[in-house]
Amino acid sequence: MSLPPAYLEYDKRGYGQDIGRYDWRLAKDRAPVRLKNARQVAAMIVIPCEYHPIDPHKTPFGHPHGMVTPFPDLRHFTARDYGNRVGVLRLLDALKSAGLKATFPVSAALLTRARPLAEAIVGDGHELAAAGLHGDAIHHAGLSESEERAMIEDVREAFDAAGFHPTTWLSPARQESFATPDLLAEAGFTALLDWESDGVPLPLRTRGRPITALPLLNELDDFKLLVERKQTEDLWTDQILEAKDYLKTEHDRHGAQVLGFTLTPFVAGQPFRMRSLVNMLAEFAGDEAVWCARADEIVKAF
């Protein structure tokens, strides 16, 4: 049976890719960026502090970090709560000891539940970013634009009411609708952590001003490697350090690039993982070719 002619018709199809947010190009055709601080790699550590409701609707799907078993899933709910009350403090201490800065996307629902956490993040000089309303408030194409705009406005209002004004956004489950970048730019966000299209910050076209996508590598995510793939802690940190060293070898050819990876508080903040994590952070701190910076700082530098 042959396919109908309409099957091959797609009005967004274009040269190299089927998306219009940015121009298609190969890495070899990209003008190399030489950072003013002469560093070869910009390391972006992202620590999402998300609130996951115990009774998620899971529309259109459940967040990978959310509840797993039927209601009330107290085991997974309390594990996530442990991350935001205990594990994240270990990560803050480890960063302070290494002298490194990170970006902390926080759910709006945590601002009233864990105000001291937000204050500790800002107090240590880290970037407080927005991680949507909570882990069950997924952005997707099934929402009307007015519904999604209202969700983003609720997030902005919650942060404003708490006295914080983030410019960087991480969507719950890193899921978007076709309109999400437009609506985020409209709401005043200037950086986005959902995409990983390039090795450098990439300005995305929107209906208004651009919003910059920074590469956050899903393949180095601690939840994916330690929980889903069941790798050892040392292998996980070795992979991150290997990525750092490899990007340095590409500097002469491709210029400075961004190494973005995630530390999830209920995963990386476990006591039996701290030795490997502390050793990895020490390697970053001691590498003069590497600049560990906040997402907002990286956008400005590039």
Could you write a compact summary of the structure shown?
By secondary structure, this protein is an alpha/beta fold.
User: Under CATH, the topology is which?
Assistant: TIM Barrel
Instruction: Specify the number of helices.
Output: 11
Distance between the termini: 52 Å
Strand proportion: 5-15%
> What is the CATH class name?
Alpha Beta
CA radius of gyration is 20 Å
Give the number of domains.
1
What best-fitting shape do the alpha-carbon axes yield? Answer: globular
What would you give as the CATH superfamily?
A: Glycoside hydrolase/deacetylase
Assembly state here? single chain
Topology:
Blueprint: E1 41-46, H1 74-98, E2 103-106, H2 110-113, H3 115-123, E3 127-130, H4 145-162, E4 168-169, H5 180-186, E5 191-192, E6 202-204, E7 211-213, H6 222-228, H7 233-249, H8 251-254, E8 257-262, H9 265-268, H10 274-285, E9 290-292, H11 295-301
Parallel strand pairs: 1-8, 1-9, 2-3, 4-5, 5-7
Antiparallel strand pairs: 6-7
